[in-house]
User: Fold YfhO family protein from Candidatus Vagococcus giribetii.
Amino acid sequence: MFFVYLSIGIYWGSDRSVLASDAFSQFSNFHASFNNVLHGKESILYTWNASLGLNYWSLISYYLGGIFTPLVFFFNNQNIPDALYLLTLIKVGCAGLAFWYYGKETYKIAPWSIVTLSVSYSLMSFITAHSELIMWLDVFVYLPLVILGINRVLEKGQSKLLFASYLLLFISNFYFGFMVGVFTVAYFFVRLLIEPKAYTKRIIPYFVTSFLAGISSMIMILPAVMDLSTNGETLSEMTKFKTEATAFWDIVMKNMIGVFDTTKYGSIPFIYVGLLPLIFCLFYFVTKKITLREKLAYGSLFAFLIASFYIEPLNLFWHGFHAPNMFLFRFSFLFSFLVVMLAGYGWESFTKQDRGHFVSICLVLPIVFVIAALTSPKSSYDYVTPVNLLITILFILLYLTAIIFFQLKKISPKRLAFLLLIMVTGEAFLNTSYMLNGILDDWNYASRSLYSEPYPSYKKLVDQADKDNKEDFYRLESLAPISSNDSFNYGYSGVSMFSSIRNRHSSNFLNDLGFRSRGTSLNIRYQNNTLFMDSLLGIKHNISDQMVNKYGFTSTSKSGKYQLYTNEYAMPLGILTDDDLYKMKLPKNDNLGAQTALVNQLSHLEEDYFSFKKPTVVDTNNTDIIKKTNNHVLYKEQKPNVAKSITYDIFVPAGNQAYLSLFPSNFSQLESSTATVLSQGTSYKSQINITGQYYNLGYFEKDTTLRFTLELYGTKEVELIDPPVVLMDTNKYQSAMKEIQQKGVDFNVDKRKASAKISTPEDSVLMTTIPYDKGWTVKIDGKKVPTKSLEKAFLTFDVPKGDHTITLSFLPPGFVIGVSLFFIGLLVYGCYYYFSTRKKENMVSIPED
Assistant:
């Protein structure tokens, strides 16, 4: 793995980093935030630096669990790319080490042959093709150990390894823990079916050990499950029987060397684990030395996995009935493990006398690969090249030649084992090279400079914002984001986030208020909304590499090419209002109407803040403008790979903030379509289907005729609702914000707690912009009060008249129970192990007559 990375220019300190796909936007930032936690800067239970606020313990359970993650402690956040590089190598290496230990304890084959299988296992295509998804790699360390633990329970009645490996597996990643849990229970029953008389007595020890490991792992799993279930996560609907994109020859094609289709949408399972393991696995099923019962038992496990590749309900089952977003067939590594596991048993049964079976397999396999290549539709497997086929056949013939020389006694068993190791390592190197180059083509490994270069300037401005606000809570957002999760890395509270662990209720509410967060709310973006939402959410600062022409924002600091802007109308974390807040009706599909309703309720005004004007097209470039029905307009390119450019004129009256509203008629057609608005010397670019619709044109103190340009790029055509210019009356905005500021409540935030002193002349409702979560406890003058939610999104509660001290504290729902179960599980298992061991010793010590 080290040398393949080196071959594509990735090494310690290299400019090209391991940050491909989600590693750049998610994992690097999440590991940086965990580094902050380890250094005492944040709470391990709650973070304010994730889309207004988030249950951090739940985030850890999916992204940051495991025994390897704490190694980030020894890195600073600017060098997280090196940390992830090191963690990747360590995890892949430990996966090989774990399988080597399993093989050493399981197979009666040459030591070098066990190393050969461990190389194949640790460099299977699933691992290397998904190597950028670093939180998945822990599972491959524990899978062989769990299987070995089951073997020890069955064969020796020893349960320590099973308990420890199950516990570490579930704590590391509950998602993959579920898949391995299902597979290993099936494996247990397969072994039970093979030798029911010998192993029936082991049913109770296995399930007691597994149950207690599961109970102990509730410290991570229970809070995560409760968080997912209470914060809007839903199961996927079953709408079809057959899985998408799969075809007849998938199993054959994906067992060739170097076959990489994609890890985006439309991929088929990654199941390659090496040709030699495949050959010995097939040998396992054809040799007469293995009983038919064993073959049928393990064959049924293979059949179930293969059926799961093609049958959508089974596929969804493996994913917890939640369809994956890209990186499909996430359980396919179990197929690879089963191949290499049975290969060990096949190898164990292989002798010099087994010429016919082995030779037959090595001759039939190339024929099957050729038939698959010749008969399959070109469109189904266009990523499988003649080179893949030829090198696959070549390696099969090399293995065949080596075995024949061994059977003819031309080479010794030790030399054969070492020769096969060299060849398998070469094959694994070649396949891994294909996989990592596939990632490079599919996602690209980001340059280190994209991540690290802005860090000093960014961090300096964030630290300055902290200094300016002293102990009062504030939020900050970037108009020149490095990634969608910058707030995790730099330690500020913002709006943007891209995470599978999120509060969907708050994101949906913010979407209704103009921040883009569509579908399952996997993404939420700050860019392209109005001043109202800046102020209501307490966005006190913006960081930008260009002039910020927003009313009430002034430049207060500079570092490198970036400037820090301060918003004088930013609200504090809490706002006092009345019970009418809960009666407020926000219009659907009208985010400006929703903003108006919320602002008027909080300010007790009745104003219209927005007006709409039609801009005049004065020039176009590479663009055909086609008017359609229902006020839709189609912008079609004349030449490919050139931006579609439209220049407009608009008259903006004095005292208005102007926005261009861009709303697509069909989001699904705009996956890669970007919009850039050039106005008054600024040029902000964003992806149309991800960011909001209000592109800032600037604030105008005087009457102005503005000329601005819209550039559309990335798709041949873009269909939008005919774009109007939205004018926001800043005088009315200022009046409303001053009214609301008088009712603001400043909070001091310290890790998972927040506190404030408040004085109110009448009974009131305190609305906070903290995402509502059942984990929050609110106390007024030391007495607990019930919490309420605004639209299931914001935390609110009643405050009686008078002077009060308010304290808020967060504890993940299920955390206390989970911690209790952790210790109960350990204690009960300790007692169980002690008494079961003592019972065995007593039985052994009884003398025979």
User: Anything to note?
Assistant: The first strand starts at residue 16 and ends at 20.
